[in-house]
Amino acid sequence: MTQAQQSRTDEDASKDAFFARIAEISQDMIAAHGKDFAMGTLVLAARWIASDKISEPPARH
Predict the structure, then answer these.
(1) Please, which domain of life does this record's source organism belong to (predicted)?
(2) H-helix segments, the chain
(3) Rg, the chain, Cα only
């Protein structure tokens, strides 16, 4: 396996892990507040990302 192939494999594994986390959080939101809440939250998050509103981590108090 070339370094580029290994890097791609690592990237794919990382992306898969994020999708798994998002799926788990989505299921939790649906169970607690329903599908509309979960979808709205994910759409809002996408809008924030697109407009660079969450490009920096939030300040911790």
Answers:
(1) Bacteria
(2) 3-33, 35-50
(3) 16
- Does the global pTM surpass 0.85? no
Sign (positive or negative) of CA dihedral 29, 34, 35, 39: negative
pLDDT at 53: 81
In degrees, rounded to 5, the angle at the alpha carbon of residue 31 between the alpha carbons of residues 60 and 49 is 40
Instruction: Output the CA–CA distances (angstroms, integers) from residue 4 to 8, 10, 13, 14, 41, in the order listed.
Output: 6, 10, 14, 15, 35
Domain ranges of the chain: 22-54
Using 50, 70 and 90 to split pLDDT, how confident is the model at 36? very high
From residue 16, give the alpha-carbon distance in Å to each of 22, 23, 53, 59.
Answer: 10, 10, 25, 28
Tokens of 3: 């370094």
